[in-house]
Amino acid sequence: MLTSVSVAISSTLLVADIIQSHAFTSSFVPRISLDEYLSSPTYDRPILIHGIASTATMDKLVDGIMRTCGDEWVSLQRKQKRDGTTSTEIYDVTLQESIEYMMDSNHDDAYFAFCEGILSKSETEESSIDELNQFIESIRDKPFPNQENW
């Protein structure tokens, strides 16, 4: 079971490849599909793998997270820029409320939720958490089939 999971809600899940060479000098990081990566894995430069999870899969994941952890308390940071100054405040809100605030964010009034470890500290039934962790692991491990999970 994962002990700490950062919950990132988006329509696309990107996984960065491990950098094993310090000789990488390109000014951009190439994006490749999961199929391209699986047919020819690369370990000598960073890459972004797109299309690991479909929109339907991500919707299912988000629904599961909100159903399981939507009422859990998280720290919400609000960073406001006004008249050349920046102020930061931290609030305790539920995960569901944090999503609503973040959706209303803009450049000068931004919200960020800190929910790392939410799946390991949730008071929800353990079987629901285990099921959600397994679902996240299955997405995370797609680029690395049949490899040992460290």
State the shape. Answer: globular
Main sheet: strands, sense, barrel: 3 strands, mixed
Strand order of the largest sheet: 1-3-2
Rg, Å, rounded: 18 Å
Q: What is the helical fraction, as a range of percent?
A: 25-40%
Low-confidence stretches: 1-26
Give the terminus-to-terminus CA distance. Answer: 12 Å
> Kindly state the mean pLDDT as a whole number?
79
Structural class per helix/strand content?
A: alpha+beta
**Strand residues, percent:** 15-25%
Provide the succession of SSEs: EEHEHEEHEHH
Number of strands: 6
**Helical run tally:** 5
Would you kindly provide a written description of the structure presented here, covering whatever features stand out?
This protein is an alpha+beta fold. Helices cover 33% and strands 23% of the residues. The chain is built from 5 helices and 6 strands; from the N terminus they run E-E-H-E-H-E-E-H-E-H-H. Strand 4 (73-82) and strand 5 (85-94) form a beta hairpin. Helix 2 (55-69) runs antiparallel to helix 5 (126-140). It is globular. The protein starts with 14 loop residues before the first strand and ends in a 10-residue tail after the last helix. Residues 1-26 have low confidence and may be disordered.
